[in-house]
Amino acid sequence: MDSNWGTSDMTHNPPSERKLSGKVAIITGGARGIGAATARVFFENGAYVIIADILDDLGTKLAESIGGLYTHCNVSIEGDVERAVEIALDWKGRLDIMFNNAGISGPDGSITNLKMENLNALLAINLNGVVHGIKHAARAMIEGQNPGTIICSSSSAAIMGGLASHAYTLSKEAILGLARSSACELGVYGIRVNCVSPHGVPSEMLMSAYRRFLVRPDLQTEDVGKIVGERGSLLRGRGGTVEDVAQAVLFLASDDAGFVTGHNLVLDGGYTSGNNQMSFIYKG
Ligand SMILES: NC(=O)c1ccc[n+]([C@@H]2O[C@H](COP(=O)([O-])OP(=O)(O)OC[C@H]3O[C@@H](n4cnc5c(N)ncnc54)[C@H](O)[C@@H]3O)[C@@H](O)[C@H]2O)c1
């Protein structure tokens, strides 16, 4: 398992530049998208990474490529998340970083047609999954007297209405509240709890939503990046990438963010901070 460490084919940064040397991290939803990009960045920064996902083939391949472990983990099942934490403890004797990143989009459509079973199915993953992650990571950190860090994936949709389905919006707003209350309780143990709120990052989740909404099955990552850059960002032409989010998660996971807790780090090119439709007032 550790055979890549210290060998010439490793792709780590030089030791002096590694921000997570020897840290043990779990990334839920780490098989692809933002989670996978974060797994690579964590590895490059010297962390031991456990990918916890339901995409077994992708997750296993990624874990192998970064000297990590994969565990099949449906975050809506508490026992699966508890098991992922146990794997970290069995493997390295500690858990330093929990990235509660797994999530799904939808159900689409009007609030007047919202089926409660669809809402509950989404909450089981997006919200209960995060509750499970915070609960079991915090237990391991408290029992191990290890002041680790917990990061949760919220969304720009939690800040501004109209960016995602009702169910998804509800789940992401709830995560912000849960992260803040958890930060209040866990701060006495030195455990930091923060959120990242990505926006318009062309992962599989966003690509399939855009293809559906725009009825353009041929849509490519670059097309979506362009749409977001032109219409969903104050930084004209600049949309977000999975790497942007991974770097923000790295910051929150590292000692660089040692005094940051209860925070929501928004990665949206400023979109939810202001409206540039009236920027003519700045002319002259
Ligand atoms: N892409 C964006 O623009 C954006 C914006 C805001 C928030 N987010 C959030 O970022 C997170 C990552 O999403 P992404 O954009 O990389 O999408 P993605 O679909 O590429 O990745 C989501 C990952 O979660 C996994 N997953 C789904 N259900 C799961 C379950 N029940 N148990 C375990 N794993 C499960 C998937 O298999 C996948 O690997 C999500 O929480 C998402 O809501 C994304």
UniProtKB/TrEMBL annotation:
Keywords: Oxidoreductase. SUPFAM superfamilies: NAD(P)-binding Rossmann-fold domains (SSF51735). One of its GO terms (molecular function) is oxidoreductase activity, acting on the CH-OH group of donors, NAD or NADP as acceptor. Belongs to the short-chain dehydrogenases/reductases (SDR) family. PANTHER family: 3-OXOACYL-(ACYL-CARRIER-PROTEIN) REDUCTASE (AFU_ORTHOLOGUE AFUA_6G11210), SHORT-CHAIN DEHYDROGENASE REDUCTASE ATA1. This is Uncharacterized protein. It comes from Buddleja alternifolia.
